[in-house]
Amino acid sequence: MAAAAAAAAVGGPQPPQPELSAPGLALDKAATAAHLKAALSRPDNRAGAEELQALLERVLSAERPLAAAAGGEEAAAGGGGGPGAAEEEALEWCKCLLAGGGGYEEFCAAVRAYDPAALCGLVWTANFVAYRCRTCGISPCMSLCAECFHQGDHTGHDFNMFRSQAGGACDCGDSNVMRESGFCKRHQIKSSSNIPCVPKDLLMMSEFVLPRFIFCLIQYLREGYNEPAADVPSEKDLNKVLQLLEPQISFLEDLTKMGGAMRSVLTQVLTNQQNYKDLTSGLGENACAKKSHEKYLIALKSSGLTYPEDKLVYGIQEPSAGTSSLTVQGFAGAAGALGQVDSSDEEDQDGSQGLGKRKRVKLSSGTKDQSIMDVLKHKSFLEELLFWTIKYEFPQKMVTFLLNMLPDQEYKVAFTKTFVQHYAFIMKTLKKSHESDTMSNRIVHISVQLFSNEELARQVTEECQLLDIMVTVLLYMMESCLIKSELQDEENSLHVVVNCGEALLKNNTYWPLVSDFINILSHQSVAKRFLEDHGLLVTWMNFVSFFQGMNLNKRELNEHVEFESQTYYAAFAAELEACAQPMWGLLSHCKVRETQEYTRNVVRYCLEALQDWFDAINFVDEPAPNQVTFHLPLHRYYAMFLSKAVKCQELDLDSVLPDQEMLMKLMIHPLQIQASLAEIHSNMWVRNGLQIKGQAMTYVQSHFCNSMIDPDIYLLQVCASRLDPDYFISSVFERFKVVDLLTMASQHQNTVLDAEHERSMLEGALTFLVILLSLRLHLGMSDDEILRAEMVAQLCMNDRTHSSLLDLISNPNPKSGIIPGSYSFESVLSAVADFKAPVFEPGGSMQQGMYTPKAEVWDQEFDPVMVILRTVYRRDVQSAMDRYTAFLKQSGKFPGNPWPPYKKRTSLHPSYKGLMRLLHCKTLHIVLFTLLYKILMDHQNLSEHVLCMVLYLIELGLENSAEDESEEEVPVGRPERCHDSWFPGSNLVSNMRHFINYVRVRVPETAPEVKRDSPASTSSDSLGSLQNSGTAQVFSLVAERRKKFQEIINRSSSEANQVVRPKTSNKWSAPGSAPQLTTAILEIKESILSLLIKLHHKLSGKQNSYYPPWLDDIEILIQPEIPKYSHGDGITAVERILLKAALQSRMNKRIIEEICRKVTPPVPPKKITAAEKKTLDKEERRQKARERQQKLLAEFASRQKSFMETAMDVDSPENDIPMEIATAEPQVSEAVYDCVICGQSGPSSEDRPTGLVVLLQASSVLGQCRDNVEPKKLPITEEEQIYPWDTCAAVHDVRLSLLQRYFKDSSCLLAVSIGWEGGVYVQTCGHTLHIDCHKSYMESLRNDQVLQGFSVDKGEFTCPLCRQFANSVLPCYPGSNVENNLWQRPSNRSMQDLIKEVEELQGRPGAFPVSISSETNLSKEMESVMKDIKNTTQKKYRDYSKNPGSPDNDFLFMYSVARTNLELELIHRGGNLCSGGASTAGKRSCLNQLFHVLALHMRLYSIDSEYNPWKKLTQLVEDMSSQLGNEEQQPEVPILYHDVTSLLLIQILMMPQPLYKEHFTCIVKVLYTLLYTQALAALSVKCSEEDRSAWKHTGALKKNTCDAEKSYEVLLSFVISELSKGKLYHEEGVQECAMISPIAWSPESMEKYLQDFCLPFLRITSLLQHHLFGEDLPSCQEEEEFSVLASCLGLLPTFYQTEHPFISASCLDWPVPAFDIITQWCFEIKSFTERHAEQGKALLIQESRWKLPHLLQLPENYNTIFQYYHRKTCSVCTKVPKDPAVCLVCGTFVCLKGLCCKQQSYCECVLHSQNCGAGTGIFLLINASVIIIIRGHRFCLWGSVYLDAHGEEDRDLRRGKPLYICKERYKVLEQQWISHTFDHINKRWGPHYNGL
Fold this sequence. Notes:
Blueprint (H helix, E strand, L loop, with lengths): L1 H8 L12 H6 L1 H13 L4 H14 L3 H7 L12 H18 L4 H9 L10 E2 L4 E5 L10 E2 H6 L7 E5 L4 E2 L15 H4 L15 H21 L10 H22 L3 H12 L1 H9 L5 H15 L19 H4 L4 H12 L4 H6 L2 H12 L16 H11 L4 H9 L4 H13 L1 H10 L3 H16 L2 H11 L1 H14 L2 E3 L11 E3 L4 H4 L4 H11 L2 H9 L1 H12 L7 E2 L12 H21 L8 H21 L10 E2 L4 H15 L12 H22 L8 H11 L1 H4 L3 H14 L2 H11 L19 H20 L8 H15 L4 H7 L14 H10 E4 L13 E4 L1 H7 L2 H7 L3 H18 L30 H15 L7 H16 L14 H4 L10 H4 L4 E9 L3 H4 L8 H10 L7 H16 L3 H4 L17 E10 L1 H13 L14 H4 L11 H15 L1 H14 L10 H36 L27 E2 L6 E2 L7 E10 L28 H15 L2 H7 L7 E12 H13 L13 E2 L6 E2 L1 E4 ...
Antiparallel strand pairs: 1-5, 2-3, 2-4, 6-7, 8-9, 10-11, 12-13, 14-15, 16-17, 16-20, 18-19, 21-22, 21-23, 23-24, 24-25, 25-28, 26-27
Helix pairs in contact: 3-4, 3-6, 4-10, 5-6, 6-7, 6-10, 6-11, 10-11, 10-12, 10-14, 10-19, 11-20, 16-18, 22-23, 22-25, 23-27, 24-28, 25-29, 27-30, 29-31, 30-32, 31-32, 32-36, 33-36, 33-38, 37-51, 38-43, 38-46, 39-41, 39-43, 45-46, 45-53, 46-55, 53-55, 53-56, 55-56, 62-69, 63-66, 64-66, 64-68, ...
């Protein structure tokens, strides 16, 4: 009924068949559709069209659903079945109509056939795995879906896999974005030609139906949107509407997937303006539609930027003819228009009218649009759809739909224009959004698809003013968070900066905008437009100036700042993203001469902006003290464009430089930053908290340095090269606040710096000068040289992995040419570094593949300056020096502590030659002279570092001296003229030799200099000289600087009188102003050369150590490059400098020789020959060594004492070596143990037992053995699956259940061992402790609040001595371990006697040194440890009995523990005993103690003597038939079905301990007879009928020979004849024969079979003997293992000859006649096989040859695993897991942390680790490529076994490079699994709380 009612409600034309009732309509949809289609196909289709319209009106009326959805604001018109039903109905109708009466599925298929699939265009959302290939990409944003990537050929390309952050789309087939060679097979064919044309009638219905459908959708969206009161859309309502619309939008999305044909229809519908007009305007009389239209208009109102609360007026105009060619005249008008808007709330906001005005003025300049539209107008469905998409904050489904349409070219253009039209509105919505993160991602998801395409970007730039819009919107965004700048002049500053605390910056909300901007600037055509457009450049510089000086730091001088703000993150990010990256984008297009004009433009507007900035902050010439901002983007723009101009565009530098005054201003702030860095590192800013250190580090950090410190240093270099050098140098020392320190006097006062900071500030100033003068990054190095220098610096600090190098050597602009990983990167890397393959240290820590510098790099290229510039942490500089020192020692180049080497620099670009004038200015020479003098005189606050830098500067000066030095003779009259200054000229070479006699200094009155008489009064001679040569006067740097400043200002400005206003606050006055200073005159009489020579003496510690080398070897002057001077310490450096000085001028050479002659006094105080000197040195060294040793020993003693106090064992020096369990010698009767807690030694006694520290863990490693050699592979296709049928555990399970089916339960439990799965493994570190000490230790651990990696409540602890993980203590049995006297009893007694004794001993229950009844401490401990052992494994691994709780269970469990430990030790030894000896496992084995504990408990369950298998083995029974028992009672297990090794353990553990060796041997001999018979029986079953009869025959013939009992032929034939009495052999049908091996059995192969059958038993027995009696295992070849073990066990008679081939039968020693006992054993089987022949046979063949356990074999390439598993659905919950993992033991696929698969609060991985590994799980996490280990209640990340080509892990697949298996690592993992050492080797464990 709903449909009809709705039809009535619509006031449109009535449907033509009104009599049709609704149900009929519903039934007949298909017919109606067919009828309409036919009507429309006629040439005159007006009637059909009307009919269809009417039907659609009825079906798609927007009233019903939302009225119902709106929660009954108005009653639903037709009631209907709720909103869902009606919408379903509408969709059904649409599908029917589209298909035109056919089936919808067929229709879809038909449309798909016409898809000219040239583009892939697959759209994905966040977290999708996609690929990017840099080799094929044209745009850096190019991406491919996995399918297209694998179908294309990218071998050898630079590609990576990535997880999409914001979503994306596949570019395969789009040649604008990628090269065609990379297209996949499907998109390579230009298929448009051969796709048939679409038949008209196929899509005819769609053209009619879709407009209505889309309009209906838009009405829903209008209807559902309520303009919220507080301008914050309430998300709940929006999401509700979106949920309702889910099916509709999905329907549209499905349509887009039908391919190109349907897309072009949709494009027509979406962009057709007529359709839109008709539908949206023809609403006249419909109330509901009216209402929704009103809502739409209200929503539109807020779309302009002129919204009351916004300060920027801007609208975006529709592209019209006039706008694109707007001339600059129109521009002034626009500015006027903008300036008019005056809204009152500005003043309220800022509180200062001035600021408000300033804001407006700033903004007015850039806008080009005269007609400023405030509101959007929509002309098509597409535009309104996008509008609502924005309003609803970009719902994912809508975004996907809009993007899915992009392969349609026409749509792409229309959509891009629409997007640009809405751009301002988008950003406005984003700014207000609560979910700005998700929204940002979705915006970028769209924009990156549009703007990456250069052609498209150019088109919208030209037609829609994209650049203007972006820049304006950026300005508008930042507008909202401006504050007044407090830099420089706090009160009157007119400058405004962004406030970094605001959400917009803090949350990085602006990034979509900036990222789009950077994206479009990467296109040359767009960037050119930007650089040519002066208006835009002005606006952009305005924008940049908002960041100039943001986040100002003020130094706290009194107390520590209360709240450390973290805004600096936001500030650095903003400068990098909003300023620097667009700058790099623009720079990348200024590479050639033709682009000079652009650079001039940028530089011009940049300088204007800087000038405005200086005016705004009222800057004159002094920076305000104690302030620093790290953000000077305008300076940096200026610097980088200058650099580019000189480097690439051949511009004349001077043509783009401002006047001197501007240069002086420009240098101030960058210099301030450099000085502040030194202050911060000197801890002068410590009261500002840690964040200021963070800023200093970020400023030089690899991602920021290219955009921050490098431009700053370059700008300073430019200023220095153009300004007066004296002015510059004095400015530097003044900024670094060390002017007062630079005096000859020994004492001084510093008005601006505390004494403790002086030294590090002086070091800072000198280091800065060195960097300034030696850095060539922007002064002439080529790109490759820069890359090489950067790489060398990083590698010298530390060895680096490939990825960290890529990261550290940041490429400033990700979109520029040099892409990291490019050819040049790899070639430079291979030139400077060697690859160190990943290594494994035995401790288990795994190294990644590293690059380390080559030797020649250390030798020639190590550049300390570059290292200092690039280090974030000061310790890295030290690290580089340490590595350098190590290299020199190793290569024998220099043994001592070297100084940083001096490195020759690349030549300067001619434009910057002026920089070197700094080295040749008097100011610097005076400073150097003063410092050398002070160092020589040992004044305080000078360090080796200062000296090093001083020498470095001198050397730089010598290297860069002017060629035309007015050499040699100086005219005589010259000295008079220079009496005011220290040095005659400015050239360092000549100034070096200039002697300075007297210096006038200002000193505090307390200084020692004042006390002396003035030299003038002593002799008239000296007085004369004083007047003559003039005392070098007091030198004041500050005064000097002032003077120069005035000169410069007067020169540069005609109105000098106005400008001259040196604002000198008292603080910065010349040092002379302090009253208590007096003048003194010092006699110096030194020159720089003489100071250097004396320094050489001082450094070397001996007189006249310097001897000019050229006096011996004149060659030195001819070829001066002497390698011996290149590395060394200060002495070498001085020698090198003197040599260079001598080379540069003959005069210097002469003077050096003179000084050396003068200094050398003719009679030295005490003559010391070289030999004596040597001995003296030796003595001194010895003395020092002795002192050091004493000191060390003393320290050691005190440490030891404190160690003792903490109750640790320190009494024996050897206690580091793991304690041998038995330290006692054989003759001592009792074993002595050391307790590692109290340090006492003694035996273990009843009342104070000692125990071994042990770790008990359940293990299923044994169960994983398989019988085939080929290890199983990890499944990587659906076909490959792993089934555990052939594992050891499964086979043993089957056997036990088979036995339990037919035989008596209690007897079954004695016939096998368990523990293959969940067996308890006991291991020890070998240390012992008193059990009572241990208890108190545990108590203290319990009270210890420190977070431990283990749980004390579960009894876990670490061994107090070696810190190995443990969880129990195994009591040591009192008495000796080495009871030789007991074993070596002469064994001459007969076998029969021994058998009797064994039987008796087993029958005696109490034959125990400890009687159980008297509870002693020892027996209590034994019981508690037994409990621990039981609780180690789960109940299901202990209880196998049919009747629960039966004692047989415990009995079985106990001897199986012994079995498990023996078997595991065998595996650790490699599965055999050929290597012999006590292996490492033997050293720390605790089997002996374990046996005692088990034996004690086994004796509690004495077996009834009649059931004791011993009897069956050694006695003949009279009446065999009585054995079988009666029918209803199940028989016992026949002895031939028993597991012999289990029997052995039962027999041994039932004996009283300690055991006699002869009894042991006796038991082994008896069991061997049984084992051998089993082997024969198994062999007989395995062979064919003919073989059997042949053997039966041959054996019978020999039966009566003498050693018949020891001949396998006889025995075999007898076994066959006995067994053939039953039905055992009869069952073989023909089909069985196929199973039996066709090989003929030769005697050799039979012998081998028998030996292989018996070997496992012999191995276990030998191990047991080794542990019980301490005998060493012999080593042997593999082929003789059997005979060696047999003789070692005493099975072989000693006289046995080894000549003829060894026969296993010769070891037999039958206790009773062989044939009788075999008959008896076979009889039991015969009676069983009469009923169950099949099972009887299966039980006889025991598989005993298990191969060693292995983890699954992994494929070579990680991608094969990833592609199969990351989309695989989980078999439990059938979803694709968020974190898939796969078990490496059995290949099971599990959900890590998945709540979907949780069972009883256990997540799937934990559960699986219990089922598969009894608590140990090894999982490979598919999405992270790492392996995680679960051990019980703890887990740890183990690392990855997949490494990339550079030997690195890629955790979480962040880099996405191809990964390859690292076999060594996998082996290590497997080894740790098999040896159960995860707990010991991996250190980082944490609890998993069952949540993995």
